[in-house]
Amino acid sequence: MFYWLILALVAVTLVITWLIERSRFGAWLIAVRENEDAARALGVNALTIKLAAMVISGAITAAAGCFYVQYFLFVDSGIAYGTWISVEALLTPIIGGAGTIFGSLVGALVVRALGEAALLVTGHAPGLDLVVFGLVLIVVVGFSPSGIIGLRKTLIAKFRRSGRAAQATNSPETEIRHD
Length: 179
Prior knowledge:
The protein is an all-alpha fold.
């Protein structure tokens, strides 16, 4: 039952994010993030936009926290505010692709899979999983600063361009006809 509840929570969160991204409110959020003074000059109330963003973020976080407490029936400061939580919270959007709808989801899946694989390979040695995360972070930031989702978009665009270029060179319209 908990699996279906958390899956529904993730789906609702992704839908909310998708709706915000495609709305006027999403454009205002981007405007305030990029240049607050310019957004104010255009009539955007930056304080209201920031407050609304914090309320939405807090509501989603509170729902996830309620689920967590109901599932484990235990809360500890080391679990809720430990170093590991901070590392995961920072790594997931960076690896997945910050600023994208599915970036955090993909990042979370990759980070959890890497964490489990690192523990399996290192034999639960303390700290070695963090070394693996550090290496992955260096690779992602070095080769794909926009994360896995950004890398995917870049590769798709590159393959489409190369496919169009190949079609253009092979098409009969490009041949010179001497009639």
